[in-house]
Design goal:
Helix 3 links the parallel strand 7 and strand 8. 24% of the residues lie in helices and 29% in strands. The protein is α/β, with parallel strands linked by helices and 209 residues long. The protein is built from four helices and nine strands, in the order E-E-E-E-H-E-E-H-E-H-E-E-H.
Length: 209
């Protein structure tokens, strides 16, 4: 079972071991056995829907008006895994970064990438060239980070002009998620799975040392 509640400008979710559909039911917090923070960056070229996904995750809203991100926008959210079980309750505090553009990062990459748990690159599936345009950014991330967790968010699957060749391409070395910022389809499920996968990868890095 997965629920979420809004708390000011922040947002909280809870789910059991299996991810399921999200509802708007409140839940009672218990004291977590483990609590930690993760840092997630959102990248994408103009009109990819990056900021719309960011707002859908944090505020569950969508606007038709396009406003380009200037600098960076920050948001907070909290995941609660198994909150009803005191021994297995895990609290994950998310720091989400919506970064302006995707082609002005190289000179600052070593600074902004520091301590990042996951990178999300938003792809507009209605534009065939958007994936190839994102490749330099993906290479940049892999250059500055050791074994980064990277996810591709294929946005705008609600539109009929979606390029089906984008979806389910097994040649990618990154996790892929198909979603729609406009109607919210698969947005929250995707970000939760990204967080869990990224955290598990970080744990593997530590245990492998």
């Amino acid at each position: 079972m997965t629920d979420f509640k809004e708390k000011g400008s922040s947002r909280e979710w809870t789910f059991s071991t299996k991810l399921s559909s999200f509802t708007r039911q409140d839940f009672k917090n218990s004291h977590p056995a483990i609590s930690f923070s993760v840092k997630i960056f959102f990248f994408g070229f103009p009109n990819s829907g990056k900021t719309s996904i960011f707002h859908r995750i944090l505020y569950d809203r969508f606007s038709q008006q396009y406003i380009s991100t200037i600098g960076a926008d920050l948001g907070h959210a909290t995941l609660h895994i198994n909150p009803s079980n005191c021994d297995n309750h895990v609290e994950i505090n998310l720091l989400l970064w919506d970064i302006s553009g995707a082609d002005e990062l190289s000179s600052l990459s070593h600074i902004i990438y520091k301590d990042t748990t996951a990178f999300i690159v938003v792809i507009d599936v209605t534009k065939p060239k958007s994936l190839s345009e994102a490749m330099p950014l993906l290479q940049d991330i892999c250059t500055f980070m050791k074994q980064p967790y990277v996810a591709l968010f294929f946005n705008k699957i609600d539109l009929q002009c979606t390029d089906k060749d984008f979806l389910g391409n097994e040649n990618f070395m990154f996790d892929e998620f198909s979603l729609s910022a406009k109607n919210g389809e698969n947005v929250l499920e995707s970000i939760v799975e990204v967080v869990v996968c990224a955290v598990l990868q970080e744990i593997d890095k530590i245990t492998d040392k």
